[in-house]
Amino acid sequence: MKEHKARHQLRLGEGRVIVGATFLLIVVAVAVCAPWLAPHDPNEQDLLQILLPPAWLDGGDWAYPLGTDSLGRDVFSRLIYGARVAAIVGTVVPVGTCLVGATIAILSGYLGGIFDKSISRLVDIWMSFPAVVLSLVLMVGLSPGLRNVILATILVDWTRFCRIIRSSVIGLMKLEYISAARIAGASHVGIMTRDLVPGVLPIIITLTSVEIGIAVIVESVLSFVGVSVEPGIPTWGVMIADGLATVFQAPWSLIFSVSAIVLTVLSANMLGDGLRLMLDPRVSERRRIEA
User: Fold this and answer.
1) Is 35 exposed, middle or buried (0-12, 13-18, 19+ CB in 10 A)?
2) 35-273 is classed CATH 3.40.50.1820
3) CA 202 to chain centre
4) What is the distance between the alpha carbons of residues 129 and 115, in angstroms, rounded to a whole number?
5) Digit-coded pLDDT (tens) for 170-205
6) Which of 95, 190, 215, 276 is most buried by its number of CB atoms within 10 A?
């Protein structure tokens, strides 16, 4: 019974990883190939073609497959170019957050004492503020720009990595192989890199995958309120803000941009959940026993 459950869990995880990773790779591919895929310049205005419906509806034009917004800009082209910001943020932020949060967590869990208590209190205080609100506050002090958006998101989200990984490190420190490594004369750096990092690697991979969706949401909220990237750069959050003004006359700009965000976040969550199922140590142990 347990073996059957483990195999089912493994197949379920593999399916979610395939679906989630496939869609995220499509988003990245669209972002890279945006200049060749977009039929129009995303900022090109045609005031004679405002609020056109999607091409398959009455009044639509196949020159504008997903319609146009209130300024006559092609929704399809803006959706494609918006994927570029989402892809950059969804790639750089998780990596940066992982490096900062995991490094501090491993040091805190390994060193313990006053350093660990100080980090623990700092994380508690930092996480008492809502992540989006804290990002908005940071962006008010920083000038709009993609680099600052990435920096603000990393400064906000590193605590999530730190809290979870620190707990795992503290648990690993109680295991016998860590004590054996110390008795054998292993250096502090050696213990952290060769013994602790592999032990928390499954958690790091899962958290990094989930962080993709969180980063996309945070950037969308920031761009929605106008404190994200420089004006003139299309993002999905900006498309939502523009679409709200004409939601009753022409809701397609809002619908397509929201759908892009939802699908990207769901794909990232599916990837993270699938990796969690595949990297579950209980499943790995059962697979080892079966082999």
Assistant:
1) exposed
2) no
3) 17
4) 22
5) 888 888 878 787 878 778 888 888 888 888 888 898
6) 215
